[in-house]
Amino acid sequence: MTAATSVQTSLDRVLAEVDAGLEQSLERLYTLLRIKSISTDPAYAAECQRAADWIAAELNGLGFEAAARPTPGHPVVVAHGPKQDGTHVLFYAHYDVQPVDPLNLWHTDPFEPVLKTDANGRQVIVARGASDDKGQMMTFIEACRAWKKATGSLPVQISLMLEGEEESGGKNLPPFMEANRAELGAADIALVCDTDMWDRQTPSITTMLRGLVAEEIEISCASLDLHSGMFGNAARNPNQLLAEIISSLRNPDGSVAIEGFYDDVAEISPELKAQWQGLGFDQAGFLGDVGLSVPAGEQGRSVLETIWARPTCEINGMSGGYTGDGFKTVIPAKASAKISFRLVSGMQPEKIRAAFRKHVQDRLPADCTVSFSNHGGSPAITVPDDGIYLRQALDGLSGEWDKKAVITGSGGSIPVVGEFKNILGLDSLLIGFAHVDDAIHSPNEKYDLESYHRGIRAWVRVLAAFAS
Amino acid sequence: MTAATSVQTSLDRVLAEVDAGLEQSLERLYTLLRIKSISTDPAYAAECQRAADWIAAELNGLGFEAAARPTPGHPVVVAHGPKQDGTHVLFYAHYDVQPVDPLNLWHTDPFEPVLKTDANGRQVIVARGASDDKGQMMTFIEACRAWKKATGSLPVQISLMLEGEEESGGKNLPPFMEANRAELGAADIALVCDTDMWDRQTPSITTMLRGLVAEEIEISCASLDLHSGMFGNAARNPNQLLAEIISSLRNPDGSVAIEGFYDDVAEISPELKAQWQGLGFDQAGFLGDVGLSVPAGEQGRSVLETIWARPTCEINGMSGGYTGDGFKTVIPAKASAKISFRLVSGMQPEKIRAAFRKHVQDRLPADCTVSFSNHGGSPAITVPDDGIYLRQALDGLSGEWDKKAVITGSGGSIPVVGEFKNILGLDSLLIGFAHVDDAIHSPNEKYDLESYHRGIRAWVRVLAAFAS
């Protein structure tokens, strides 16, 4: 019996181990979800450290050599399994989570995970990070645990790199990868677990990801807050000015109005367009699930095209003046906004940032000023879709669900995929089990119990496929 | 010697009493300023009650029959001096103050008053409410105290009505005035102390006040917060939509773009225009003092006209999405704004409110909704400028300063002036000693020591003029 045959015959035992251990797997996930690892808020730095330490301890318990390694920000957990011949994979996920505000919209404590039955009768794990990305991360770790427990070893050589600053545009990971290039770049392929399934029946691997440019602007007009009775009409109101600038970012047809914004944007190929049409994307359902019916992007293009293959400009936050209870007739001195751009293949983040800043500067009256803060940027990514690892992974995934795994795009941005390529020379396979209704970044974030359970089983299969 | 002659000969003694007692007058003002009577925030209700009780006790100590009388909101202090023949005045001011945010921009504790020397070498009292309106209120009470101390009595019959909800659009005062119409309406003229001097050398009485309509809107798009990577382009962003709606409220020429907004707005008379030109208003200085140089209102009109005689639309607050530290790539479910309109003579608040709401409704995509909150409204006021009380008050004021008192307009709104007329049948004289740089409603609010000192002396003189 060859090693590959041995792996295949072990598969049923490992899958049975996953099923038998599900309850304990869940308890371990809950322990991690209780740690408030909000990376963007310095008040939670100790919680981020605690999450990293907990994960490293778990991995050491599974026979990895694991440590929470320091950076100028939050730690990176790096772990290496026993050396062996054949494929060597580097698994990536992130243990940090988004802030929880507005807290009053959560039905339960965001850091006290609960298993609920949702309106569709599905069991779901509710907590911040349940889906993005602690739940997804744990599917892989628990798959390793099942292999170890059922067979005493892992089917391929496995390393992990688990980040703590994915939600805070953290700039510490690329230098960390540079500094550990030889160690981390020894793998053959990166596995990134931070994406959705195509639908509840269809697993998928994402090969196109939008890039990101994140900017914060603060508009200053008067040198102090003014009374709107005394100064209304005379003094420039920065709320009004900011609204006019934001309004000017989009054309009435939904396209972005910044000069040169589309210069480097190519139309997708007719082949890809046809393939995407074959996916049978339910545009009305996609919007309807979140209470909408009118697509907001460029007219004349499908919703799928506008989120996978067209850039966007989104106002993620906006504030100025008095926003508390009651009313205050103030003309504030300042108003500010957090604005991000999603980029597609070909667009250069710093060129877009510069064009945006010029657009804003050009619209300021002579007595007003603006300050810009750079919250990071990354180009879009296209993963080659003809490699052996992709084929093996598609095979592994297809075994777990009723439908064959498909290749998709994604509107989101996962900068690390670019860094794997640029710094470590590794292609990435983006495999995840989340769903579009998981409310990631929102109150009452959840992860389907089925995502967790089948996610673990799917990784068991994908690892077997790599060993075959 | 007639009573009038007797009053005139007492004047010097009373003024000397003001000067000798200034330090103690200041201590009493400080005591009141330390009370955190923020009326808009329910957390400070007990502080509002405490301020009312303190003022009532002070007035009782001066021989008034005074009490803090309950309303469904904060109390109204009503006080009556001894009955006597001749003019009977009803003095109005408010003891509540604006919120103090942003607190980090205050150089000292807003509720621990300090006497400072400002950049111009002037002594100023710094505290929330120092100018608006506790300092102004105390100028009158301290004038009464000086009359009582120097002569044993008050020169005319005096009642006071001191409100605690002026800064929170409180709707409890009009019913209170209705319920006590006979008692309060027995006066001959109302004196309202909540306005500015024309300039540091020129006292003034305001005869035109803008009205107010205050609205809050909340735009709802998706049923939950969304990830801008997953939904960016596809989902309507309420921040963007709100910005577009706000932007649509003003035309490029600075005029308000709501349909019918100017229908009931009359041009001011050539006489008034000429009189205002004679005031020598320093438009560049007015804007320059607050760091501005480009007037924001209707082009082709003077700044003075745009703030005294033209309506405005101001965005007093605006918020949506993530506004904390760091960055969050969210498309929020909702965004909101606090928007107020200043009205001029002839405009009907409810007609403007309805036109505004239609303007917003007309701009909503089919899958978005808006909710409106009414934060109050009042029409503009024009006080007749040919009465005997106005002439007497101008005479009294002119005695205290180098320049003769002038008649002015004001961009602000003082709803109680309309209520004095409509409910009690009383005209009002708007007399105040504040300055445009007092930073009312802003961090580091101040009141010039000279405003306080000469304000007390001016009221001593005005009361004498009413008795002559």
Give me some keywords for this one.
homodimer; 468 residues; Aminopeptidase; Alpha-Beta Plaits; 9-stranded mixed sheet; 18 strands; globular
Instruction: Calculate Rg of chain A over CA atoms.
Output: 24 Å
What is the SS-derived class of chain A? alpha+beta
* CATH fold title of the largest domain in chain A: Aminopeptidase
Give the tally of β-strands of chain A: 18
Beta percentage of chain A is 15-25%
* The CATH homologous superfamily of the largest domain in chain A: Zn peptidases
Q: Helix coverage percent of residues of chain A?
A: 25-40%
Question: What is the CATH class designation of the largest domain in chain A?
Answer: Alpha Beta
Largest interface: A-B, 99 and 99 residues
Low-confidence stretches of chain A: none
Number of helices in the DSSP assignment of chain A: 15
- Please state the average pLDDT score of chain A: 94
Oligomeric description of these chains = homodimer
Shape of chain A: globular
Proper CATH architecture of the largest domain in chain A: 3-Layer(aba) Sandwich
Number of domains of chain A: 2
